[in-house]
Amino acid sequence: MPLTSVEKDLDALTMTVTADFPVGVRRLWDAYVDPRQIERFWGPPEWPATFTRHDVFPGGTSSYYMTGPDGSRSGGLWQFEAVDEGRSFTVRDGFAREDGTLNTDMPTMLMTFSFTETDAGSRLVTVTTFPSLEEMEQLVEMGMEQGMTSAMGQIDAVLEDLRAFAADLPVAAQLIGDTQVRVSRVIRGTVEQVWRAHHDPELMKRWLLGPDGWVMTVADAAENVGDRFRQEWTREDGSDGFGFEGELLESHAPHREVTTEAMIGMPGEPSRNELTLTPVDGGTLLTLVITYPSAEVREMVLATGMTDGMEASYRRLEELVPVS
Question: Which residues form the Activator of Hsp90 ATPase homologue 1/2-like C-terminal domain (predicted)?
């Protein structure tokens, strides 16, 4: 149990939680910025968390829900106000409605997570500032302190599990809910390099090829929100061929973008792709959350070997780093 102390200051309207860990700051920091890791300890054991979005940059947002033993859900929302890479981040923490929007009927808190080196490893100090004494007492009564203590009781196992999140692992896909999949991979290179590789048409044609034997013939990128993109491939001998097109819905370079995506010439609703790039030990964590029109479409796409093709492409991308 890494928890060292919990101190409540009723005058300052703060609760300070201090915890010490036998690992370096970088390892501890990565556990908090990687959605695959934080969801393994953020919720109490009986209410595990699922992060559907985790954008650790100023102005970014994290959305998660915790699922109870009876299947009921409780949602949370973080809005990142400040991020000092490897040292601290501050979020506006609130409750979320079923549709993921902020529940303004419930209190919001300001939480600052500070990471420092110690002789034995690292220390995390979390300071929560409440809007009023009444709301502070309300949230403590709802079990906030116990929830944070419970989370600290689970983090040791995550920190010890180095292999599950190593930088040399291939693409991994995790099903989320009924229609989503989260694709993750650590790519050697900086966030800026990986972002550029996803947006420079000439670079895209060198790595975004999927399995061997294909060439990218069209790489029309969307530069501004509302623009459309188009990507096409054929076999090296010119036979066959397919492509995707869509619209750029959001862009927060070089950290996050959201697009629609549909196969050219195929009827039906497009998917929604949310790309997030996060600096971690070993490179850049690429997280792609894809929301499909239905569970059936999701299963059909995954059965095509999508992740194998993505892994082949990302290996080529790493060969281009550093991108000049």
Answer: 25-160, 190-321
